[in-house]
Amino acid sequence: MAIDELGALLGSRLNTTAAVRQHHGQDESSFPAVPPDAVALPHTTEEVAEIARICSRHRIPIIPYGTGTSVEGHIHALHGGICVDLGEMQEILRVSAEDMDCTVQAGVTRNQLNTYLRDTGLFFPVDPGADASLGGMASTRASGTNAVRYGTMRENVLALTVVLADGRIIHTGTRARKSSAGYDLTHLIVGSEGTLGIVTEVTLRLHPVQEAILAAVCSFPTVHDAVTTVIETIQAGVPIARMELLDALQIRAVNLYSKTDYPEEPHLFLEFHGTHQGVKEQVVTVQQFAHGNNGNDFQWSVQAEERNRLWHARHNAYLAALQLKPGSRAVASDVCVPISRLADCIDATQRDIEASYLPIPIVGHVGDGNFHLIILIDPESEQDRTEAARINHRLVKRALSMGGTCTGEHGIGRGKREYLLEEHGPGVAVMRDLKHALDPHNLMNPGKIFLGDST
Prior knowledge:
It is built from 17 helices and 18 strands. The strands form 4 sheets. It has a 7-stranded antiparallel β-sheet with strand order 15-12-14-13-17-18-16, with helices on both faces. The radius of gyration is 22 Å and the shape is globular. With 455 residues, it is of the alpha+beta class. The longest helix is centred in the last third of the chain and has 20 residues, at 382-401. A hairpin with a 4-residue loop joins strand 17 (362-365) and strand 18 (370-377). Helix 1 packs antiparallel against helix 3, helix 9 crosses helix 11 (276-292) and helix 14 runs antiparallel to helix 15.
């Protein structure tokens, strides 16, 4: 049997206890947990490959697992199978300060990497909020607060080591900054959500720590005023590093959770990177835009400790929102639209929120047109779930009608599958063909991305 073969390979690193399986079947989504049949904890790419070979022989599904912080049900074992937890693959294999790149095992988290890089003058900028694993971030094409300046995982992954469904090990890409050699397998895997293979090693771009870093917050009387400031800033070409929106309800939650005292109004959280002179110029420009849109004066955070406190409050927005409705779960939706349509999209969404009985804070990486609704529901209430689905459906349809996408950074998982066809049309058939070519028995994370999957 497969479990016996996996046990012989991994020993105590194969776990079938109910508590461990339950933990690995629950992410941060509002979906009920769906545990795997067993959890494997490999230490090397070769062990992952042997796990895949065993599962392939026995036609057993494989569910890759990083830190479990996804919000669209990515790690649910919808067809049973083996969860391959990469959390013990945490070696930083190489750092090249001269080339500004590094290679890490997939279980290394972004905070772990940046702590390691602290004395090099370099950092890794992609910051989704949670201390996610870098393999998981590559698999979901994660982004976050710094994406407006530094890009997403798509722009920051140079190469991958990947184990395919049949146990083959492939290396995609090189450390070269560009290449015209064949198909771009690296960016085929980035964003594939574990459905094409298991990422075991990631080669990443690094960036220099800037000479000057300045954070600020600014409140506005309306969300529309704040978003107009964002649009004007981006259209003016200001190289701002972070530009985050929190509406008044989210600010109330942040104040309660993080013991801050921001006015209960919509806020922009901002961060500027560059030379001292360059940062001054950026600040003057953005402040002019803010004042022209009824914004208040900036509150500055210059010292690293102050900046960290500000961004800690922003990163805890999800946990803070949950406290607005004790015992709730969050249906966390996100869309992304062209920057010129951002104000229209948020204005219409606010009208939906005002007409709903559910508490629904808005947060967003608005510098790149991406925003989130944190729809708070009683997980036992069918009425709440129905209302959340209605709000989410209207949001997604609105974004698609404006030339946007049904998910800016959360991924499809099991939560956005119905919208993939509407967004990509015949392109979904091409995606299915690629999936079948690499995974003909549909063993890699089945039930994710595509509706109607079966093993």
